[in-house]
C-alpha cells in the first residue's frame, strides 16, 4: 500500500528523566524539526521561543525534578544535576496536544532551540509513514520482512485505544448511566406527587407548566449530581495519589479534561431538562377522582 506522507525522524543523545519517586517517563525523544511540526499541523508560532521539550503527555509539564541529559543515560538518583556534566534540571516543557499519542511515535520531542543551545548533533533515527488506510496483517508482515533484509525494523500502530478515547467512552457511558438513574428518580418523584399534578391540571394548569416543573426538577437533580460526583471523584483521586507514589503527586491532576467535564457538568443537566420537558406534557389521568390508596 503506497503512501505519500513520510516523515523523517531525527534524534539526539538527549534524554528526559523524572529524577524523583513517582510518575516517570520513558520513550525516544525526537527532534521537533519544521517538517515534524508541519506533519502534525503544529504552527511554529504556537511554540514558546524558550520551550525545550514539547509533549502531548498530560501532566508532564507540571512535574518537578525533571532532568534533560545529553549523555543518553540517567545518572544516580542522588547525584546533583550539573550543566557541566551534561545534565540540565527542570527544562521548559510545553504541552502540545497536536502531537500523536503512542509509545514509539514522537509524542515528546526536543525543540531545535534546545538542540542549538546544548550543541547537540541530530541524526536520522527512522521514518514515520502514514498509510491512507489501516494496514492488514499480511501487509504488516510483508513490510517487516522487507525491512529486515535491510537491517531495519517496522512498528505499526496497535488497536489499543488511546487515553483520550478511554476518557471519552467512559464519559459517554457514565452520562448514559447517570441519565438512566435520573429518569427513575424523576419518575419516582412524579409518582409521589401525582395528586398535586392532578390539582394543577384541574385548576387549569397548562402542559407548559407541567413540562416546566418536570424539566426544572430533572435539570436541578442532574446538575447537583454532576457537581457532587465531580467533586467526589477529584477528592477520591487526590487522596489516592497522595498515598500512591507511583502516580507522582498532585501535579498529575493539572491536566484537566475540560471537554469531558463540560459534557458532564453542563451537558448532562441540559439533556435531563430537555428529556423532562419532552416527556412531561401528558395530562395526568383520573382528574375526576383521587386514586384509591
Keywords:
three-stranded antiparallel β-sheet; 42% helix; single chain; 293 residues; alpha/beta
Blueprint (SSEs and pairs):
Elements: E1 5-11, E2 15-18, E3 30-32, H1 34-39, E4 53-55, E5 66-69, E6 87-89, E7 93-95, E8 108-111, H2 112-117, E9 123-130, H3 137-149, H4 163-192, H5 194-202, H6 207-243, H7 258-279
Parallel strand pairs: 3-8, 4-7
Antiparallel strand pairs: 1-9, 2-5, 4-8, 5-6
Helix content: 40-55%
Structural class: alpha/beta
Strand order within the widest beta sheet: 3-8-4-7
Radius of gyration: 28 Å
Largest sheet: 4 strands, mixed
What is the string of SSEs from the N terminus onward?
EEEHEEEEEHEHHHHH
Q: Assembly state here?
A: single chain
Spans with pLDDT under 50 lasting ≥5 residues? none
Supply the number of helical segments: 7
Determine the mean pLDDT: 78
Q: Tell me the distance between the termini.
A: 73 Å
* Strand count: 9
What does this structure look like?
By secondary structure, the protein is of the alpha/beta class. It has two domains: 5-149, no CATH class; 163-279, no CATH class. It contains seven helices and nine strands. It has helices spanning 34-39, 112-117, 137-149, 163-192, 194-202, 207-243, 258-279, and strands at residues 5-11, 15-18, 30-32, 53-55, 66-69, 87-89, 93-95, 108-111, 123-130. The strands form three sheets. A four-stranded mixed β-sheet has the order 3-8-4-7. Strands 2-5-6 form a three-stranded antiparallel β-sheet, with no helix packed on it. The radius of gyration is 28 Å and the shape is elongated. The protein starts with a strand and ends in a 14-residue tail after the last helix. The model has no long low-confidence stretch (mean pLDDT 78).
